UniProtKB/TrEMBL annotation:
InterPro entries linked: Gap/Sap (IPR021315)
UniProt keywords, alphabetically: Membrane, Transmembrane, Transmembrane helix
Listed Pfam families: SfLAP
The name this protein goes by in its record: GAP family protein
Record field: transmembrane: 12-34, 46-71, 77-101, 132-158, 178-202, 227-246
């Protein structure tokens, strides 16, 4: 976080947006659409990306309109002993959740290796792809899937929430604030747009690498999430423990 705050605001937001651009809704589902058999359905993919972009933009606008007083309240609360205890509890919860997700993912992989079809990952993504690529699928259905993907990811939008908090706390005018928000949402879909352009312009060269990359993201998504939650949880626990004068046990 200190590294981000030392950077110019647009650069910090661009980094966070690119991290957000690697999520299920902004990259994995578009990748699933790109590697589907046949020619890529460019209009549907663009409609999907446009919808999820405006979803994030809308959430950001709502966030901006109400976050300034929340930041002040939150800062004052976290400066108190009760706030630090709450931070310690939240951090411990995130750390425990990350460990639990890692253990559950390891068990799922062992079941999948043993041939258990119920342990296969990505079933929801495959259903979304089938719905998006069906011949009779309407534009409204494509938009509905994009909104569903966005809503499903709200709880895990950590880079997005950090970016929105930085924006809301920045000493800039409302017009510049919302312009940077729009830029954030545009940068967020750049990875998917770049892959779409590569798929259209150099289909034979990128088709197989795209399929491998999609499989890797699907295979490691839960593991990556568990690591992120665990690391964030540990950092929160360490920060709160330091403020409260507690000593964490040293391993080794």
């Amino acid at each position: 976080m200190d590294l981000l705050t030392d950077l110019p605001l647009p650069a910090a937001l661009a980094i966070l947006a690119l991290v957000d651009g690697l999520s299920v809704g902004t990259l994995l589902i578009p990748l699933f659409l790109l590697v589907a058999p046949g020619r890529p359905r460019v209009p549907r993919i663009l409609l999907y990306l446009g919808t999820i972009t405006f979803f994030y933009l809308g959430v950001g606008v709502l966030f901006m309109l109400g976050i300034l007083s929340v930041i002040d309240l939150g800062r004052n609360f976290l400066a108190s002993a009760a706030g630090q205890v709450s931070l310690l509890v939240v951090g411990a919860g995130l750390l425990a959740l990350g460990i639990w997700m890692g253990v559950a993912d390891s068990r799922r992989k062992r079941r999948a290796a043993a041939g258990d079809p119920g342990a296969q990952d990505g079933g929801r993504l495959l259903r979304w792809r089938e719905r998006l690529l069906a011949p009779g699928t309407s534009g409204a259905a494509v938009m509905g899937v994009a909104l569903a993907a966005g809503i499903a990811e709200i709880a895990g939008m950590l880079p997005y929430l950090i970016g929105m908090t930085m924006l809301a706390d920045a000493p800039i005018g409302a017009a510049e604030r919302f312009a940077l928000l729009a830029g954030y949402c545009a940068v967020m879909i750049l990875p998917a747009l770049a892959l779409l352009a590569a798929r259209v312009l150099a289909a034979r060269a990128v088709e197989r690498p795209l399929q491998r990359f999609t499989a890797w993201m699907q295979r490691t998504g839960a593991e990556n999430t568990s690591w992120i939650l665990g690391i964030v949880g540990f950092l929160l626990v360490r920060s709160a423990a330091t403020q409260l004068g507690l000593e964490l046990p040293v391993i080794g």
